[in-house]
Amino acid sequence: MIFLFKIGFLEVSWVDVIDIGLVSVLLYQVYKLIRGSIAVNIFLGILALYLVYLIVRAAQMELLTMILGQFMGVGVLAMIILFQPEIRKFLLVIGRGTEFRENIFKTISNWRHEYHDDFDISQVIEAVKTLKASKTGALMVFSRDTELKFYAQTGDALDAEVNKRLLLSIFNKNSPLHDGAVIIYKGRIRAARCVLPVSENDHLPPNFGLRHRAAVGMSESTDTLVLAISEETGRLVLARNGKYLRALKLKQIEQKILDYLHNNESGNWEEVHEHEAEAPAETPPVKA
Q1: What are phi and psi of 155, to 5 degrees?
Q2: How does strand 10-13 pair with strand 188-194?
Q3: What is d(CA 263, CA 73) in angstroms, rounded to the nearest whole number?
Q4: Tens digit of pLDDT for each residue in 19-73?
Q5: 40: which strand partners?
Q6: How far is 193 from 266, CA to CA, in rounded Å?
Q7: Three-state SS for 46?
Q8: Is 186 exposed, middle or buried (0-12, 13-18, 19+ CB in 10 A)?
Q9: Whole-angstrom Cα distance, residue 220 to residue 235?
Q10: C-alpha angle with apex 85: 81 to 88, nearest 5 degrees?
Q11: Rounded-to-integer distance, Cα 159 and Cα 189, Å
């Protein structure tokens, strides 16, 4: 082993430098996942408890050491239970960004997404245009790869072709199906009145209601694109990977949905190209 330098009795090699670098990257990614959520407070609480354990053990306080030691013995299992959403999100991020998925399965991915060519996006856009004009609240989840059976089961199964009249009927204020989300998969509305997870991000704008927080929360938990329409203002909000865009024009919404369905999204999803925009966004995109 080739040593890089030596500090007293500590010998540092290239392997140690690489090891420290990889751990730093890992910790930074974990920080980005839990930043702004309640998980930060839980993590700080566990860290404080561990520091107390080290202090009482060094001070040879046997009773406290035994009690805290029992807790630390199941610490890994407890962290898996407490941080289950964050661990799932972390694994989802790894699965999306691997070169393995991008290259080896590229042909399979293109074959799986061919059905989107038959998806009449104009029906959705026309429905969104009407809902926006009438300030009717709506929540639409677009899924490219999975059926989202768990979330579909929280609502009422439909399995109907996407069309403007059906979407307007679902989100009509007098409809029993309007209070919830519709899940659109393979060009069909799989279910309506679905319950979505609500984001715990503390940095979301205070004017974001439950519908908008559900849109962001669903995009955090699953590989989906979620469109929310405000009932108070008619504002359109598009959520993806825990990030969101607002004050978008219909043309921009249409392009973002098509890019998602055809697996043709840019590296910076928040970027809105000039040719897509009819006018500049009212507010810059904000990371969730």
Answers
A1: -115, -150
A2: unpaired
A3: 44
A4: 888 888 877 777 766 665 566 677 778 788 888 888 988 888 888 888 888 777 7
A5: none
A6: 31
A7: helix
A8: middle
A9: 21
A10: 100
A11: 5
